[in-house]
Amino acid sequence: MENTDDLIWIIDNNYRLMGYNSTFSERRRTQVRVTPRTGDNVLREYLFLQKPAKIKELYDRALGGYSFLAETENYENGTSICYELSFKTLYLMKKDLLLDAVSINGT
């Protein structure tokens, strides 16, 4: 997870943050001024720039077993920035369902 500049984070099916790379942590501190912690609910508004309802819709789709790309647009300091998000569902030990969402910054 540390061999890329992309943001990588993993959630469980209760929307709890299970893991992330240092790029994700740095970007959260810079953009929303919060340090993420394992166990955080990713739907809490402070963790992402997207509205919680929109990000939940994307997570629900991925947790339903679909892998897909999604583009989102946010405004930071009056500038429009587009992000491409790659969602992949990972199945571990036939019990745990984890979602790996990779955020790739693009403009």
Polypeptide structure, described:
- This protein is an alpha+beta fold and 107 residues long.
- It has a single domain (7-106), classed as Beta-Lactamase, CATH 3.30.450.20.
- Helices cover 21% and strands 41% of the residues.
- A five-stranded antiparallel beta sheet has the order 2-1-5-4-3.
- Strand 1 (7-12) and strand 2 form a beta hairpin.
- The longest helix has 12 residues, at 52-63.
- The chain is globular, with a radius of gyration of 13 Å.
- The model has no long low-confidence stretch (mean pLDDT 79).
Number of distinct beta strands: 5
**What's the oligomerization state?**
single chain
Overall outline: globular
CATH 4th-level superfamily: PAS domain
**CATH fold naming:** Beta-Lactamase
Helix content: 10-25%
CATH class, named Alpha Beta
Largest sheet: 5 strands, antiparallel
Could you list the spans in which at least 5 consecutive residues all have pLDDT below 50? none
Fraction in beta strands: 35-45%
Distance between the termini: 23 Å
Which structural class should the secondary elements be placed in? alpha+beta
Order of helices and strands: EEHHEEE
Topology record:
Elements: E1 7-12, E2 17-20, H1 22-32, H2 52-63, E3 68-76, E4 79-92, E5 96-106
Antiparallel strand pairs: 1-2, 1-5, 3-4, 4-5
Offer a quick outline of the entry.
With 107 residues, the protein is an alpha+beta fold.
What labels would you give this structure?
Beta-Lactamase, alpha+beta, single chain, 107 residues, five-stranded antiparallel beta sheet
